Amino acid sequence: MLVIGIIFLLPFIWMLSASFKPEADVFKYPVQWIPHNWNVVENYRAVWFGDPPFMLYYWNSIKVSVMTILISVITSAMAAYAFSKIYFRGRDTLFIIVLLTFMIPGQAVLVPQFIMYRSLGLFDTHIGLVLLESFSALGTFMLRQAFMSIHSEFIESAKIDGAGHLRIFAQIALPLVQPFIATYAILRFIWTWNDYQAPLIFLRSPELFTVQLGINRFADATGEYYSLIMAGTCSAILPLVIVFLLAQKHVIGGIALGGVKG
Amino acid sequence: MERSASQSTASSSSKRWLSTTAKETIAGYLFAAPMLIGLTVFILIPMVSLFFISLTKWNFIQGFRGVEMIGLDNFRHLFQDKSFFVSMLNNIKLLLAVPFTLLFSLVIAIVVDEKVYFKSFFKIIYFMPYISSVVAVAIVFQILFHPSQGPVNGFLMSLGVTNPPKWLADPTYALPSIMMITVWTSIGFNMVVYLAGLQSIPKDLYEAADIDGASSWRKFRSITVPMLSPTTFFLLITGIIYSFKTFDLIAVLTQGGPAKSTNVMVYEIYDQAFVNLKMGYAAAESVFLFAVILLITVVQFWGQKKWVNY
User: Fold this and answer.
1) Nearest-by-Cβ selection for A196 from B125, B135, B141
2) Which of B160, B150, B177, B144 lies closest to B250 in space, CA to CA?
3) Which distant-in-sequence residues (6+ apart) come within 8 Å of B207 by Cβ?
4) By C-alpha distance, which of A105, A253, A133, A99 is closest to A202?
5) Which residues from A are below 8 Å from B35, CB to CB?
6) Residue B6's pLDDT band (boundaries 50, 70, 90)?
7) Where are the transmembrane segments (chain A) (predicted)?
8) Cα B36 to chain center, whole Å?
9) Nearest CA in chain B to A190
10) Within an 8 Å CB–CB cutoff, is residue B237 touching chain A?
11) Is the per-residue pLDDT at A262 higher than 80?
């Protein structure tokens, strides 16, 4: 089992070890898993402070991810609250419409979205990219399940005390579903950070590029410097590994619970 | 007098009742509004306009003046288009990766489930490829599979293979290479869902089988596999849908080549729309893709009732 596990991780181990080596040692065979000559600082400095500017891509990705998470969590949580704790006419029909949008594959609407973006001036902007990724039925669905587990008595008694929905939502409901919000926010982070297709189509200016576009551009520009390319890929994966290791229970639990595949 | 007073309290309380329902309705719509508006603007309106665009010939460079209504010509062309046909065939071939993923994931899930120690450690290991960025992973594999310098062929040659395949650069091996990478990245997701499924099987079924003296193979065949059938079915459907959406790997690794051997539908749509700028034709292809995925989803709803044990 351990052996299969290690074989499974070999591509990562190779990547990490190649990023530590001087270029000449990258393709030496048999593979030097632990580098004989170290070139860590030089490699990573060249990637982070060289040209194309990796720092900028990082900053762009962080900006886009944080904005997407914020908008997505707030709108999903509000809608989820409405669909589970407020009784209003037309609610179930609306919820079914929301669920139906989940069946529309993102790739099918790329062409009209692109045309719309060109005419609205949202093309080649970060905010356009954020808006595109912020509205998904998935978050509403996941958080609705969470709100359903709150007993209605909590809400009724708050209402009797004179609290409005806004107050109940912010001070009672949201704190009670915090773990679910965290799970959704982390999954949203992983999906946004990893997204390649939307930035590829909706961004044009190199100074707006996210890490995923940046790393590909970097790989093209650096050409044959494989040690540098590997240092770049390591840097692109690093935030995901950190978030995943810190919150693996949330990530794995969320995946198993919702059975979701971004 | 008394009567009218009681009537007026009744009507005022019914008014209050009405007004609380009205308030609830307003609150409901206000809370749902941001999501509903977002979904309408960014998904529903594009979806509706997709059908309209698919009926046009639209060279995007000329803007809205470049729109020309041509009816169903795009679809007629679609069914005669060799390149689209090849991309569809590649999508179907790519589906072969799904059963392999399911098989490996199930075996790994069972082993991890029975392990008492290091359970979460193994979960993390198998989950790593799933959370990692596809682009970064694709670039790593591009180097690993490098025909002359790559470590994979280095290893094969050291085993005595004199003419190892050129992997991504060879039309015969390019799609299988993509499939291998897909299996590797999807195992984590499938394994975690299988683990959840395994843990929901009642333990007394196994105990009863033990009393009857059933072998482990027998227990696996008669309890584990049937009890997991809803999970397997779910994973099969999500795997198939996911497979139709493969884009990143192709875009980074092969751009549909060599010789169109890895040109899948989503990449073909991208190519027509954003490289050739044929918006109308790409929209028609999108309509087709949407129909395929919708069909699979409908099969899921129908099949859940038909052949899955709950």
Assistant:
1) B135
2) B177
3) none
4) A133
5) 75-76, 78-79, 98, 135, 140
6) very low
7) 57-82, 94-115, 127-147, 168-191, 225-247
8) 24
9) B131
10) no
11) no
Q: What value does the mean pLDDT of chain B take? A: 86
B249, containing H or E segment: helix B248-253
Q: Which DSSP letter does residue B57 get?
A: E
Interface A-B: count of C-beta contacts within 8 A: 248
DSSP string, B150-199: -HHHHHHHHTT-SS---GGGSHHHHHHHHHHHHHHHHHHHHHHHHHHHHH
- Asked if the C-beta of B291 comes within 8 angstroms of chain A's C-beta atoms, the answer is no
**Cβ neighbours around A37 below 10 Å, total:** 10
- Do B86 and B94 contact (CB within 8 A), yes or no? no
Q: Which is higher by pLDDT, B226 or A66?
A: A66
The ipTM assigned to this model is 0.88
B34/A78 Cβ within 8 A: yes
Number of Cβ within 10 Å of residue B116's Cβ equals 5
pTM: 0.89
- Cβ B133–A201 below 8 Å, yes or no? no
- Per-range mean pLDDT, top range of A169-183, B192-206, B282-296: B282-296
Tell me the per-residue pLDDT of B192-207, one tens digit each, with 9 for 90 and over: 899 988 988 888 889 8
Using DSSP, state whether A260 is helix, strand or coil: coil
- The verdict on a CB contact (< 8 Å) between B143 and A229 is yes
Give the H/E segment covering residue B58. Answer: strand B56-58
| Distance set, CA B174 to CA B90, B99, B282 (Å) | 11, 19, 25
Among the partner-chain residues B24, B135, B195, the one whose CB lies closest to the CB of A256 is B195
Q: How many residues are present in chain A?
A: 262
What 3 state SS string does B73-118 have? HHHHHHCCCHHHHHHHHHHHHHCCHHHHHHHHHHHHHHHHHHCCCC
Q: Quick check: A3 pLDDT over 90?
A: no
Fill in the amino acid letter for B258: P
What type of residue sits at position A55?
A: M
B46 and A248 in contact by Cβ < 8 A? no
Neighbours of A9 (CB within 10 A): 15
Answer whether residue B305 shows pLDDT above 80: no
For B149, nearest residue in chain A (alpha carbons):
A27
Which residues lie closer than 8 Å to B142 by C-beta, 6 or more apart? B168, B252, B253
Say which residue the tokens 């040690």 belong to.
A227
